[in-house]
Design goal:
By secondary structure, this protein is of the alpha/beta class. The protein is built from 13 helices and 14 strands. The protein has helices spanning about 1-5, 15-25, 30-40, 55-65, 125-130, 135-150, 175-185, 205-215, 230-235, 245-255, 275-285, 310-325, 350-370, and strands spanning about 10, 65, 70-80, 85-90, 95-105, 105-110, 115, 130-135, 160-165, 200, 220-225, 265-270, 290-300, 330. A 10-stranded mixed beta sheet has the order 3-4-5-6-9-10-11-12-13-14. The chain has a two-stranded parallel sheet with strand order 1-2. Strands 7-8 form a two-stranded antiparallel sheet. Helix 7 links the parallel strand 9 and strand 10. It binds S-adenosyl-L-homocysteine (SAH). S-adenosyl-L-homocysteine binds near residues 121 and 124.
């Protein structure tokens, strides 16, 4: 208690188990965890005074021992197709991006797991900004909290029906922070999303994939992008550590024993690089004994990118070929590209924008000074 008094615990960092642990340190029963989780994540209440089913005395203690810190929305952009992108500012001034993609039967939120990324994939703009730091659980779940609030979730609770960890960063390199956030997404006392509608996308951190399997049961997407190690080493340098065969074996282990589950295999379509008929044949062969759906992602360009998007004909042909070979194959519709919200375009443009606003403020101050 003394410690929590000096150093209030941010309750947005805690899943159900963490919250029960926290209340145990206050000498409180586990059901308090459920009550507070519901207030925060279902009612959007972050003011202890409004948590009316807690005693006055407990509310007073919580005011001292707990905090409710979230990142904040710094900037919002809306695409002509309804996609929305938020620049989310973290307490240290770093920014990340979160994207909402509405479709007729679902609303998908694409969230970030790190500020920047270490993986340096050759076709991804996040790589260009390098790696800054891992997000905390509160910063990860905070993206869902803030998006729901911005979208008016109080009126329509299902507005965000799906979450994909396909924003900036590699979720499996931030395992300890990501897992409690996933737990909250699935928890009926928090967001209650179906485990099939929460997807972790990974470039293939094999040992973490095996650990993930032990602690959760969310859907899995892997960024394959190439059928041979030689090319994948180039596109996804992590492949040098965990080559294709090891990655696919880990995918198989991930869904072993689970009925009706399959892996999503992401494959970015790069003109003349990985989009030829021989690649489709090799892909079908590689995925022969893995229950998988192929998701073809037309490459999204960004400044200084060295690749081109495959032509519509090449993508069509590739898809038809895979379908003919028995693979379930869809082409990911590019959404929000007019606001740089499409896959691989999330760069945060963080520092620039913050520096720009700092510069504008300084200029305004100078003008004001000169005028007075
Ligand atoms: N690190 C994770 C999640 C982040 S990226 C991963 O690698 O899966 C989400 C998806 O977008 C990945 O499949 C990634 O390879 C893809 N992607 C990255 N840059 C892209 C681009 N410029 N165009 C299209 N897809 C891209």
């Amino acid at each position: 208690m003394a410690d929590t008094l000096r150093n209030p615990v941010n309750l947005f960092d805690l899943d159900q188990a963490g919250m029960e642990g926290f209340f145990a340190t206050l000498g409180e029963k586990p059901f308090r965890a459920t009550q507070v989780l519901k207030w925060m994540h279902q009612q959007g209440v972050t003011d202890v005074a409004q948590m009316t089913n807690l005693s006055k005395e407990l509310r007073a203690r919580l005011t001292l021992a707990a905090s409710f810190k979230l990142p904040e929305i710094a900037f919002e952009q809306a695409s002509a197709d309804g996609t929305r992108k938020w620049l989310v500012r973290l307490h240290d001034g770093n920014c990340i991006e979160t994207v909402f993609i509405p479709e007729h039967d679902r609303g998908t939120l694409c969230i970030s797991s790190q500020v920047g990324c270490v993986l340096n994939c050759a076709f991804c703009s996040t790589a260009q900004q390098g790696f800054n730091r891992n997000l905390t659980t509160s910063e990860i779940i905070g993206q869902l909290f803030l998006a729901r609030r911005a979208l008016g979730a109080a009126k329509d609770n299902r507005v965000v029906s799906n979450v994909v960890m396909m924003g900036m960063g590699e979720p499996l390199l931030n395992f300890d922070q990501v897992v409690p956030a996933l737990n909250l997404m699935l928890d009926d006392n928090a967001y209650g999303l179906s485990k099939r509608r929460v997807t972790v996308s990974t470039a293939g951190v094999v040992p973490a994939l095996d650990r993930l399997r032990e602690v959760t049961d969310v859907a899995l997407a892997v960024s394959l992008h190439a059928t041979r190690d030689e090319l994948r080493d180039e596109l996804v340098p992590l492949n040098k550590k965990y080559p294709i065969a090891e990655l696919l074996a880990a995918c198989k282990r991930y869904i072993e024993g689970k009925a009706h589950r399959s892996i999503t295999v992401e494959y970015v379509m790069l003109d003349g690089v990985n989009d030829q008929p021989q690649h489709a044949r090799e892909l079908a062969r590689l995925l022969r004994d893995l229950p998988a759906k192929v998701n073809l992602i037309p490459f999204n360009p960004f400044p200084n990118s060295r690749y081109r998007r495959s032509s519509a004909e090449a993508i069509d042909r590739f898809q038809s070929q895979l379908i003919a070979l028995g693979m379930i194959t869809v082409v990911r519709r590019t959404r929000g590209d007019d606001i740089d919200a499409a896959c691989g375009q999330l760069a945060g443009q963080v520092r620039d924008r913050t520096q720009r606003s700092a510069r504008l403020l300084r200029n305004a101050a100078e003008v004001a000074n000169a005028a007075s």
